[in-house]
Specification:
Layout (H helix, E strand, L loop, with lengths): L5 E5 L3 H13 L3 E5 L2 H10 L4 E5 L1 E2 L2 E2 H11 L4 E6 L4 H9 L4 E4 L4 H32 L9 H13 L6 E4 L6 H10 L8 E5 L5 H9 L16 H4 L4 E5 L6 H13 L1 E3 L6 E3 L3 E6 L3 H6 L5 H7 L2 E4 L10 H16 L5 E2 L1 H9 L5 H15 L4 E2 L6 H4 L6 H5 L3 H19 L4 H8 L3 H10 L2 H7 L3
Parallel strand pairs: 1-2, 1-3, 3-6, 6-7, 8-13, 8-14, 9-10, 10-13, 15-16
Antiparallel strand pairs: 4-5, 11-12
């Protein structure tokens, strides 16, 4: 049976040492012993212990020296100090130097067990926190944002440059381009990384609920407000708050946001007490805020206040050279989570991924790869495993077309026609231009405008 924990007992009283060791072994612990400071140091240097229990007086030596040795060289090992001559001063000194607990002899069985259990549990919590932070770094660190496109490399530089500042950051780009990932990366690379990161989807809540969600409310502020509620800004005190879809905020909410951005002060709904917070604010939108200002839908002063540092994420159709990197990344991710083994993509599948326009951007690509892995039957993802919209060159929904100009909407079938003719002539420009009844210069211009020149480069054509 696996022991509850591994312990090292260090005491120069051999009789007490043997008795305590035997009893703790009966309780389910793995126990080693040492009768001197030097033996104790040698033991912790050879083996990793969960807890060291050391007497303060070790013959002519001082148990505090063993505590210092553990703190310096084995910081993950907890130390409980023991003494038969306990004083308040010694207890304070032990805790101040990093001891997990301080116990006075003669030891009570229950007291000793409780101290060890508490210390082991605290150690587990610390280890879990370290693991969680490592997972957060892996998931939300810059290394998880894939891209070799020159625009993405510039964005990485901006993130590094602004992470340690308190400046407001506005992240713009189409839906699905990874605005939340960039916001989290800024937070994780800053000195606020150990403090809260609070995300609020402003467009998901009506104005009345959004105000309460952001600023909290006082007891009795409205029907059902039986107690005081802490808002997201207060929760993010010392950390970062990420306001997504900020363009959806109402005019009155925009006024409140302007004040918070300027002074970092606010009142709860129904309250009159002013709260001040130390919060880094990052905002995001998929709308053109300049256009919204011109149309009177967004306050000009708020726009100038939030547009201090603008990080604009390009759509995936404008950086198709990153599609193979992203596809392989999502493939590895899904395989790790699902336990399936898929080695890669067929040439036809990768060509289809690079031809598709991806109106849903990176998020849509991720979903397509996940679907292909989970539903695929072989060790390679083929074109037949991808959604029909991808393999037929689609990607423009009725809703998407309705939000575009006529020229933009008509470009999709034009692009597909040129792509089909290019592939039919093995990407020979001269033959393609002749087949289309246009000159080669016109073909080059159309390929550049429709993003086909990038496809050509990516495919080595």
């Amino acid at each position: 049976m696996k022991p509850l924990a591994t312990l090292l007992l260090v005491d120069d009283d051999r009789q007490v040492l043997a008795s305590m060791a035997d009893w703790l072994r009966e309780q389910g612990y793995a126990v080693d012993t040492a009768v001197s400071l030097s033996e104790g140091k040698d033991a912790v240097n050879r083996k990793n212990y969960d807890v060291v229990l050391a007497d303060i007086r070790l013959g002519a030596d001082d148990g505090f020296e063993l505590l210092a040795h553990c703190r310096k060289n084995h910081p993950d090992t907890a130390v409980i100090m023991l003494t038969g001559y306990g004083t308040v001063e010694w207890a304070v000194e032990a805790i101040r130097h990093g001891a997990s607990d301080f116990l006075t002899k003669p030891l009570m069985d229950e007291e000793l067990l409780m101290s060890i259990e508490r210390t082991v549990n605290q150690r587990k919590v610390i280890e879990e926190n370290k693991t969680l932070k490592a997972q957060l770094d892996e998931r939300y660190g810059m290394e998880n944002i894939i891209g070799h496109d020159h625009r993405m490399l510039k964005i990485f530089d901006v993130v590094d440059a602004v992470a340690e500042t308190r400046s407001t950051v506005l992240i713009t780009g189409e839906s699905g381009t990874g605005k939340s990932l960039i916001a989290r990366a800024i937070h994780r690379r800053s000195s606020r990384r150990d403090q809260p990161f609070v995300e609020v989807a402003c467009g998901a809540l009506p104005e009345t609920l959004l105000e309460s969600e952001l600023f909290g409310h006082a007891a009795g502020a409205f029907t059902g407000a039986v107690g005081e509620k802490m808002g997201k800004f207060m929760q993010a005190d010392g950390g970062t708050i990420f306001l997504d879809e900020v363009a959806t905020a109402s005019p009155s909410m925009q006024v409140k946001l302007l004040r918070v951005l300027q002074d970092l002060e606010f009142e709860q709904v129904g309250g009159n007490k002013t709260f001040k917070v130390d919060t880094r604010i990052i905002l995001a939108t998929n709308e053109d805020l300049g256009k919204a200002v011109a149309e009177g839908r967004f306050r000009q002063d708020l726009f100038y206040r939030i547009n201090v540092i603008n990080v604009e994420l390009p759509p995936i159709r404008e950086r198709i050279g990153d599609i193979p990197l992203l596809a392989q990344h999502f493939l590895a991710q899904v395989c790790a989570e699902s336990g399936k083994t898929v080695h890669g993509f067929t040439e036809e599948a990768m060509q289809a991924l690079q031809r598709y326009r991806w109106p849903g951007n990176v998020r849509e690509l991720q979903n397509a790869i996940e679907r292909a892995v989970l539903l695929g039957k072989s060790g390679m993802i083929g074109a037949e495993d991808l959604p029909a919209s991808v393999t037929t060159g689609g990607g423009l929904s009725v809703e998407h077309i309705a939000n575009q100009s006529l020229k933009q909407a008509l470009s999709a079938p034009e692009r597909q026609l040129i792509l089909d003719v290019l592939e039919a002539h093995n990407w020979n420009r001269q033959q393609t231009a002749a087949a289309l009844g246009i000159n080669r210069t016109t073909l080059y211009k159309k390929m550049k405008r429709l993003g086909l020149e990038e496809v050509s480069v990516a495919l080595g054509r």
